[in-house]
């Protein structure tokens, strides 16, 4: 990776070094995705089956997997993989189960009771990418919190043919509805509904540019009221390392995200030129051993090492970038954590590779990319429920707060608002004039 000294770069150069390729979809992508959405809207299942053949080369007799097909897939998965899924499941359930909502119920003033409640989203759609890798881990990251939150209908879609391990993991995580359809057409089916696939309230999950564009378009489409999880893009990792870090560990972590795709972005920030050089050597050695070395090499070609003055400056650079994953391999990693303002998930110390979070530590691997970590949180239990408020006033409460509401309403010129209070105050005064006087 190119090694650049941060303090010698102009403001413009610093911005360019930390830039991602643009998130905005091009017109031709938008147009083709709109055509797919409209075809699903007008022709439902028939359109889905045509797209399965055109884009995935699979002729589909039935979109929904039967119980027999789900059970048969399970028999073809190895005991080792089943055990690994069980271990990861236990950790993901423990971490997400501990995120239960704590309700708020209080009187803001005497007789004015306000509550914050939470309820599971009834119908959720979970997209599991097909194509380059069978993302068993993504099944767990979506299906387990949806189950813990209590979402009644949890619908999983994935391009055909669906890998046996995906089907097994889905079933093990409590998913009973699995449909063989992917791409923009799967998102359209989940948003609009078809003869077979139910329309859902919210769609979760990563995917390629067609999937991402369909989520964007349908979340603004007047034909439905769809919510989506977050803007997800190519994987990113930024490693902050001091002179004590292990070059082989750092290189391995950078490669673990580089292998996701040629558009993955990996960055090393260090105050040690020995580490910068050492990591480059380790990258060359380790890259040669990888099965996806061409993909990883393409990602590395646009990645950088940034030499900084000290760890404080390293944290500043990381905050400017806002990485999806931040790994801190320094003498006292937890001390640096207090300087971190933007990161999807943070990995502290030499024995915390990013892969553990991808698969099994318990945290969720669906994380904001493109610098959205400044404002968007990592996926959590809260994303699978909606919060709503409840309020209830006693007569005393209304008497006490009524004038405040009327003054504010009238100052906005909204007489009807004021009137809704005035009428009630008048009726209370008629029933109990002494009380009204006191209040
Ligand atoms: N951020 C994350 O958490 C995370 C995790 C895992 C994967 N990912 C990303 O998910 C993506 C997975 O992509 P994938 O392609 O492997 O699987 P995918 O399921 O997202 O896309 C495959 C589908 O794309 C559609 N498609 C392909 N070519 C098309 C065309 N020309 N026109 C219309 N539709 C077409 C097809 O319908 C096909 O079923 C990768 O970009 C990967 O980086 C992100
Ligand atoms: N690192 C990915 C999120 O950026 C998630 C993943 C799935 N499998 C392996 N990794
Ligand atoms: Zn990963």
How would you sum up this structure, described in words?
With 439 residues, this protein is of the alpha/beta class. It has three domains: 2-23 and 233-362, Rossmann fold, CATH 3.40.50; 27-230 and 382-387, Rossmann fold; 394-438, Single alpha-helices involved in coiled-coils or other helix-helix interfaces (Up-down Bundle), CATH 1.20.5. It contains 17 helices and 14 strands. It has helices spanning 11-17, 27-56, 67-75, 79-97, 136-149, 164-172, 183-192, 209-218, 247-258, 273-287, 293-301, 311-321, 333-337, 354-359, 395-411, 415-431, 433-438; strands spanning 2-5, 104-109, 112-120, 123-127, 153-158, 177-180, 202-204, 227-228, 236-241, 265-270, 304-307, 325-329, 345-348, 385-393. The strands form three sheets. It has a six-stranded parallel β-sheet with strand order 1-11-10-9-12-13, sandwiched between helices. It is globular and about 90 Å long. The relative contact order is 0.14. The model has no long low-confidence stretch (mean pLDDT 95). Residues 235, 257, 260, 358 line the site of zinc ion. Nicotinamide-adenine-dinucleotide binds at residues 32, 55-56, 129-132, 135, 138, 159, 182-184, 206-208, 210-211, 232, 234-235, 260-261, 365-366, 369.
């Amino acid at each position: 990776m190119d090694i650049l000294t941060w303090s010698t770069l102009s403001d413009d150069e610093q911005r360019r070094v930390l830039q991602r390729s643009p998130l905005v979809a091009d017109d031709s992508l938008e147009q083709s995705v709109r055509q797919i959405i409209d075809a699903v809207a007008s022709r439902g299942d028939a359109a889905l089956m045509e797209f399965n053949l055109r884009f995935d080369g699979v002729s589909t007799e039935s979109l929904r997997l039967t119980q027999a097909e789900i059970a048969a897939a399970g028999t073809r998965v190895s005991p080792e993989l089943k055990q690994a899924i069980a271990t990861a499941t236990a950790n993901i359930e423990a971490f997400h189960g501990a995120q239960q909502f704590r309700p708020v119920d209080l009187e803001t003033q005497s007789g004015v009771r306000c509550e914050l409640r939470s309820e599971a989203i009834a119908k959720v759609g979970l997209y599991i990418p097909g194509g380059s890798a069978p993302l068993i881990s993504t099944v767990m990251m979506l299906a387990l919190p949806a189950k813990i939150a209590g979402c009644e209908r949890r619908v999983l879609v994935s391009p055909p043919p669906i890998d046996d391990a995906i089907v097994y993991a889905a079933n093990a995580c409590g998913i009973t509805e699995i449909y063989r359809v992917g791409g923009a057409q799967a998102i359209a089916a989940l948003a609009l509904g078809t003869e077979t696939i139910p329309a859902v309230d919210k769609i979760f999950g990563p995917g390629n540019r067609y999937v991402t564009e369909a989520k964007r378009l349908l979340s603004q489409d007047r034909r439905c009221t769809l919510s989506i999880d977050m803007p997800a893009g190519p994987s990113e990792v930024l490693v902050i390392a001091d002179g004590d870090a292990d070059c082989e560990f750092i290189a391995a972590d950078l490669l673990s995200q580089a292998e996701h795709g040629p558009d993955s972005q990996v960055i090393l920030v260090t105050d040690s030129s020995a580490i910068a050089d050492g990591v480059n050597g380790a990258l060359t050695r380790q890259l040669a051993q990888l099965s996806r070395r061409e993909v990883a090499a393409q990602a590395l070609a646009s990645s950088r090492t940034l030499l900084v003055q000290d760890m404080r400056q390293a944290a500043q650079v990381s905050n400017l970038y806002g990485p999806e994953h931040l790994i801190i391999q320094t003498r006292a990693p937890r001390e640096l954590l207090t300087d971190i303002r933007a990161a999807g998930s943070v990995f502290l110390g030499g024995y915390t590779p990013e892969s553990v979070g991808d698969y099994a530590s318990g945290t969720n691997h669906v994380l904001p990319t493109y610098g959205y970590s400044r404002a968007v949180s990592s996926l959590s239990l809260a994303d699978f429920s909606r919060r709503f408020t409840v309020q209830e006033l006693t007569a005393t409460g209304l008497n006490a707060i009524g004038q405040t509401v009327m003054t504010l309403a009238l100052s906005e010129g909204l007489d009807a608002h004021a009137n809704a209070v005035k009428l009630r105050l008048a009726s209370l005064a008629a029933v109990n004039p002494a009380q009204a006087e006191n209040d």
